[in-house]
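PROTOCOL LOG
Step 1. Enter all chains and additional molecules of the complex.
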Amino acid sequence: MLKSKAMKHVRVLVLREDLPQASLTLAETESFHPDPRAPEEQRLAPLVDCRYQGEYQKARSRLDKIAQVIPVPEPDLSEIRVVNLEELAEVNAWLGSAWEFCLEHQEGFRELEENARLLEEQQAVLANFAELNVDLGALRAEKRFLDLHIGVVPRENVSRLEGALGLAGHMLLKYMERDGNAHVVIVGPSEDGASELKSLLSSAGFTAIPLPHGLDDSPETIQADQRKERDRIDRERADLQEEVETCASEMHDKLVRASTVLALAEPYVTLDPAIRSAGYLASIEGWVPVEALPDLERRLETSLHNPFSLESRKPREDERPLVPTVPVRNRWLQPFAMLVKQYGIPRYGEIDPTLLFTITFVLMFGTMFGDVGHGAVLGLLAWLFRKKLGRFYIFGVLAGISSVFFGVLFGSVFGYKDLLPAVWMSPLYNPILMLQLATGWGVLFLTLACVLTIYNRLAIRAFMAAVFGAHGIVNLIFYLGLVWGAVSLAMTGVFGVIPAGLVIAALTALATYNWAHMQAPIGEKILVVLIETLETVLGYLSNTLSFLRVAAFSINHVALMIAVLTLAGMLGTVGSILMIVFGNIFVMVLEAVIVTIQVMRLQYFEGFSRYFSADGREFAPLRLRRRPRAA
Amino acid sequence: MSSTAKNAYLNTRVAVKATQLIGVEDVRQLSQMTLHELGQHFGLDQVLEQPGSARLKTRAVEQGLIEILLDDLAVLVRPMRPEERGLVLAWARKYALFNLKTLLRGKIRQLDPQEIRENLYDLPPQVRLSNEDLFRTESAVELLRCLEDGPLSLLARQAREIYEKRQEAFALEAAIDQRYYSELARRVTRLGDAKADRQMRTLIGSLVDRANILWLLRFRFAYELPPSETFYQLVPSPHLMSRQRLLDLVSLESQVQVIAALPEPLRSLLADADNLMESQRRLSQYCYGIARDVLRHGRSGVARAMAYLILREIDLQFTFTLIQSHLLHLPAPYVDLALGLSPAICAHHWHEAA
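Step 2. Run joint prediction.
Step 3. Record the structure below.
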């Protein structure tokens, strides 16, 4: 679990006609990570005929767009078979017509929305004109000498349109603004320039608001007409929705087929960059976990009718950065693996920090937030909301359990000390001891981080870096010497000769190494070596002290709860209950967030930055897509 | 970092970067270099040495030069305030609009997707459109609908409405250009009234002025649009070409009258320009003159950074022209014309010039 799975580089040589079947078989195994590097053989070249890829890309894009309008069913992968170009082209053509249908309906919905918007604008216009003593009916009628337009125009176009209309002999009056649009009346002589005005209004995005017939009717009649119009739009919208749903159910079978065909065609397209060919022969290269190799070979033997060749070899030293790392699969470690992934992917051969991260995270969280009540609530909430939280609920449950465990040790239940006798003691009873333990924990954590750094460097055969590099063997000797000396100084009042010798020897070795490996003028060399040596001393010192926060937060929790309970004791019964309830909620939310951040900080900066290069590649095997892409 | 410290930091960065700008004399020197020397000089030798057609190389060089400019931009916008950064990024968004126009033209003419893709610039996230989503669309209207969900919603909505009503690619592209300059003018107007902000206004205003004069001459006298429609396509500038001046100019009946009515120094600048290309060349020189002035004497780090980017862009355009002329084996007089080293002449006189 600490070490990534061993991988092998694989090259499969097949006849070109077998390529689609080979891609499908590789996808079925879910253990083949394509390697798109150009092969060493000059004669192998990328595939030239890209019609398959082109048809697939178009069809996939259409299906994804359709999925935004109507639900696309899951592919039926009960039968795994090769999809040929003709079938793919046929599906693409059908998806084209299906997308046109969706587009038409989308436009239909937009048109109805536009009509609804215009109706609202019309109501606003009539409400605005209601107080004026104007015969609105007269505005509708064609005028012999007057050209009149009532409508809306985007607010930012009003000023330019006003100027342009002035040049065309018309006037613009803005009487209202709504939702980024300006309501305007445009008036001018009607004898000429109609086409100029039309073109201008079209450029300015002017939309005329049709004034309803019968404007000399009573307001009630007009409102009733408008209600009818709104009902008509709603009805049409419902009809259109029903039509879409009916068509979607009629198209269901064809959509399943399209979805299936695309799922079956996808591996071949995805694999394309890793395929090279020469004549009738094609080569596919990739990375496969060693344990999955026999199964992969067996499946290829079963599925391919023509002969093929499978060659595998261990990754070369120069290929290490390119080898993918298989992520942790353990269900309980999944949420922690996601947090590790936020920082980066372990390089192939490096220790996978997920397990270590999980253990230290849970321990530090519980220490800093030790309370039976709070931990139980946290764990319970995570459990209750597990569907919403997804795999992250495990994170909450484990953090809660850890809080409960340390709560039992500290004897704290919602801040009360009397409900449960402490198995060990409350952090506030002996803060000095807590700080000493936290420092000890820091020393252990940093030592472990250095050991992992050394192991990771040795694993990639970087021997000099393992000995002299940052957090390497010499650094570790210096650190342990420093700790030894500090403990000795605290207990006996003397630093000690051996620890001092270790510290001086390690620093001298580091300075010499840095001096020898630096290309710079002598003055700069002296300066850099001095500063780097000082930085090593200060760095380890400050990093160790950084762990004091573990104790500080455990004390802080007790102090905060004492404050809440003291305030509650100063209030009446109701006030006291409210204070206890809301005080606990406040402390719980505040500390859960802060403690999580602090623990993450310790993990990322004091741990990961030392031993985790985080520049690896995630194992992303070729696989069949069993669900449609999320809309 | 305080605003004074940011200004000092920006000024220092601009001062360091400005040392790599090339002047007119340098351009003459560069025009004498071979393709290999040019490649080495601009760090493009690897691109030029790769096998491929002249078209592919030209494309790769253009992409490489845009990346150089946008890398500079990414460094310079970092210490700016949000509104200043927004203005500089709005200026750089022209490259995203080039992509948008390419996509629109491709969709309107129903070109092969691969061909469209080959003509798109690869841009950094700060100025990029979501090309992949746009690329998946199957028509210009669908593309603009898709764009309506993003930060260019206003531009997209108006462009779509215009295109749906008029079905003209010209109207569509004019609307996009118009919105681009309107956005620049709007953002620069929102800056304060300090001297530094006024410098920025002059700088951006000169770009808007140049676009306005060229559009005015082209729409009014080449396309013979009526004054009202011409005015609607223009953008009131925060510098010389104000709204009232544009209203006065579009009503005039000839190009000579328009030039005579322009404010100084534009009137003297364009007095004897006998064609639109020459007017464009002189206006560009005028803009670069302002940019050089702001870069040398400006007090605002942001205005100087903007001036640097404008000048850097023209440098990179010179570079591109030089390399392209070598790749296409163009005669020297054509290259001088393209570089603006000799006065522009009408297209039918090009042959004589060559």
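Step 4. Note key features.
The longest helix of chain B spans residues 195-222.
Chain B touches chain A at residues 113-114, 136, 138, 142, 154, 157-158, 161-162, 165-166, 171, 175, 182, 226-229, 231-234, 236, 243, 246-247, 250-251 (CB under 8 Å).
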